[in-house]
Amino acid sequence: xxxxxxxxxxxxxxxxxxxxxxxxxxxxxxxxxxxxxxxxxxxxxxxxxxxxxxxxxxxxxxxxxxxxxxxxxxxxxxxxxxxxxxxxxxxxxxxxxxxxxxxxxxxxxxxxxxxxxxxxxxxxxxxxxxxxxxxxxxxxxxxxxxxxxxxxxxxxxxxxxxxxxxxxxxxxxxxxxxxxxxxxxxxxxxxxxxxxxxxxxxxxxxxxxxxxxxxxxxxxxxxxxxxxxxxxxxxxxxxxxxxxxxxxxxxxxxxxxxxxxxxxxxxxxxxxxxxxxxxxxxxxxxxxxxxxxxxxxxxxxxxxxxxxxxxxxxxxxxxxxxxxxxxxxxxxxxxxxxxxxxxxxxxxxxxxxxxxxxxxxxxxxxxxxxxxxxxxxxxxxxxxxxxxxxxxxxxxxxxxxxxxxxxxxxxxxxxxxxxxxxxxxxxxxx
Length: 430
Ligand SMILES: Cc1cc2nc3c(=O)[nH]c(=O)nc-3n(C[C@H](O)[C@H](O)[C@H](O)COP(=O)(O)O)c2cc1C
Ligand code: SF4
Hints:
Ubiquitin-like (UB roll), alpha/beta, Rossmann fold, binds flavin mononucleotide, 430 residues, four-stranded parallel beta sheet, binds iron/sulfur cluster, de novo design (two linked rop proteins)
């Protein structure tokens, strides 16, 4: 199979059928074993499913890495209220392109994961919230849901188990902030997509004010495999604290960018050199953003020994986030790169919190001033000062997401800033 690149270093569990269009039909999905884990889950019972997911050590793939089984166990038992499952398919973090591929190639894998999760938390309705721009992907998903309903794999008395679960595909309007879990719930309810103050957390007061669990697409896609094979099976890959496999979205200056499913703890150097065929055209590595645009930038020396698991990336000075690895060679002007990110966050800020609304806008203006050849060294102090005040002071972490690349780039790539400031000439930025 030639999905665009496949490496022999991969462990393809979730991505096994990438590149095979027959896998997205119900017939193809059933031939691939889809929907058998749901029946097994019901035979096991809710608590045993949650225990297996806890045993597996699966951690949320939406960015924060929170243990999934533990999150599910926060849902109340016998609350007497409707419970909901939300699947977060809003995937808008710059550099991230895994969830759309999981849906595009194997939608029934995700649907089965949603059904098992919904069953485990006592929900009779699962909502899959798709990013507004995912026209093709959301229609593939909607078609898969329709097929599964028609054959009794979703809906009333699923596969004769006596369990009723509905699945609704909801398409957002294309706002990055609707990927934040409570903004997503507001958006689903027909309100403005703005994050809510927490607590209360969704397990207590979530969608429509009811107990709700929200998980990322990749998290839920892993669940049928864990139920089918057991939590210990999943632990054969990865590290003690970061078990399992993870889809790494590699973009930027490598010879073979793409999605690669690898055991957590895989060395970053081997990802770039062996899996992705090295930095493009013999250029040198300058920097890597390892987890999507909201995490600190690593310089080439920090990448040398970086282990791609939640703890490993932290000890190298950044965060794994959603494992969106953006590789930059020595031709990259880091200031331009950071400016593009700041511009994105300023555009996507929902505007509720003053440090975020004002901070993202001012940081973007200062960076533009430096790129316009009108910057001063004092601007760098101002950027650090402003971004420090934007950290930990807002309703959600979008604000912190700007601080991380700005501060890390000023610390590690100060020379890029100083060169622009000293040159004093306008630099174009796309
Ligand atoms: C600004 C912002 C954007 C986010 N965007 C996404 C997203 O597109 N997809 C996603 O799964 N999680 C996103 N998250 C994280 C979610 O809030 C939530 O933690 C996640 O869906 C939980 O799923 P998990 O436990 O399976 O990781 C975002 C968070 C923030 C603060
Ligand atoms: S931090 Fe920014 S995006 Fe998040 S709630 Fe506040 S204003 Fe909105």
